[in-house]
Amino acid sequence: MPRIADEEIERIKTDVPLLEWVRSEGLEPRKRGKDWVVLCPFHEEDTPSCVITPSKNLFNCFGCGAGGTIIDWVMRRRGISFPHAIEVLRTGSVGPVSDAMHGQQHIEPIMPMDVSARTALKEVIDYYHQCLHQTPEVLAYLEKRGIGSADLIETFKLGYCNRTLGYRLPSKHTKAGKTIRTTLRDVGVYRQTMFEHFGGCLVVPIFDADGGVVEAYGRKIRPDHKIGKKEMKHGYLPGAHRGVWNARAFEASDEIILCEALIDAMTFWVHGFRNVSAIYGTSGFSADLKAAFERGQIKRVFIAFDRDEAGDRAAEKYTPWFAERGIEVRRVQFPKGMDANGYALKVQPAPKALDHLLRSSEVLSAPEAVDQADDTGVAAQDGPLLHLSGDREKLPRSDVMVVQEDNQLYLTIMDRRYRVRGLEKNLSYGALKVNLRPASVSMP
Ligand code: ZN
């Protein structure tokens, strides 16, 4: 069952007016005192005994005992489950209700039955993206991992699978519903068991050059979400890995930071290092990724795999492939046992710390034309490393220094320092309300 935030349930109970809802179903409530009465739709009667109390947004039938909130009303009227009713209310899917509709779908499907697999997958990713915006706990998770950036979420269309997709498709009892579910099972969105593959996961899609979704990564953010006995912590769509995350980096820069996982790559990205991508785990240096290195004529790769045995071994294993193509290979030296995400969370300010690690990375292989002096030459350069040969326009790197202390952020812009408070109270990206004030003027 999808988990719905308590705040959202409360919001629906109090904010969606029951009286209006009842009217929209074609019933005709009449005023009686402060309340309203209506012919009860839950039992046979000639005189209305179902009372609606707008001040409390509740109903109660003195004839059959039915009663409760607007959620109870919708569940009972339409013969649907609690999460299905929440979706109906969330989407404002009002309209006349009949007995024939019991247990059927009550929300406009997000796609028709005859879509191609490619379109179906894109629609699902769009839907997951929409769900992420409705789920404060995913935003909180991203914050906790230090990658809660609206820019990241929108640019890469991050999503969340809250297991409500089924309510947004034609009923599974209809031909249309069966057809579309077969398509979605074939692309891996549904498993053979017909559970959503990425249930409870943050979902990161990978696009091809035409904006089609060719792969997706899921990271479980709620350990208590279980499907079956064996449960993955993270994983991809079934089948061969296709596509390259952040493919435009390979066109915009001839230096690439290559991570072991997408969370790490996104960590570099949010801290301003935009020429970053990731392999599919230490054994996942895919054909598409290799092609991107060749097509982009990449000159230098910073291997930023985890600093553990598997990461070191993988870095060693792939070095010859780069060397054969004249690509300089550098190994980013995180402290033992650490990955990029863990490091950025621990060492603040992260942009500076990551920058330092890139500069002091160890050369595993250098093209012959590059002599020894050039190794130290990199570290001695002024300015952000990534602009040595990158394109500043295409790869903007933040010039704002951000330091986090407790719940406050300190921003240094030029020679001024600002303090930002109240960020933790903002749980969605719809609105932003913070307290900003100059904290100090730093001395040169
Ligand atoms: Zn009744």
Question: How would you characterize this protein structure?
Answer:
α3 packs across α4 and α10 crosses α13. The strands form four sheets. Strands 1-2-3-4-5 form a five-stranded antiparallel β-sheet, covered by helices on one side. The protein contains 15 helices and 18 strands. The protein is of the alpha+beta class. 32% of the residues lie in helices and 18% in strands. β1 and β2 form a beta hairpin. It starts with 5 loop residues before the first helix and ends with a strand. The protein has three domains: 86 residues, Zinc finger, CHC2-typedomain (DNA Primase, Chain A, Alpha-Beta Complex); 120 residues, DNA primase DNAg catalytic core, N-terminal domain (Alpha-Beta Complex); 140 residues, Dna Topoisomerase Vi A Subunit, Chain: A, domain 2 (3-Layer(aba) Sandwich). Zinc ion (ZN) binds next to loops.
Based on secondary structure, the structural category is alpha+beta
Radius of gyration: 27 Å
Average pLDDT score:
85
Low-pLDDT windows of residues: 370-398
Indicate how many domains the architecture comprises.
3
**Beta-strand percentage?**
15-25%
What small-molecule ligands were found? zinc ion
| Strands, count | 18
What form results from the Cα inertia axes?
Answer: elongated
Ends distance: 57 Å
Short description:
The protein has helices at 6-15, 18-24, 70-78, 82-90, 117-133, 136-144, 150-155, 175-186, 248-252, 262-270, 287-295, 309-324, 340-346, 350-359, 372-380; strands at 30-32, 35-38, 50-53, 58-61, 67-68, 159-160, 201-207, 213-220, 234-236, 255-259, 276-278, 300-304, 328-331, 362-365, 401-405, 408-413, 416-421, 435-441. It has 444 residues and is α+β, with helices and mostly antiparallel strands.
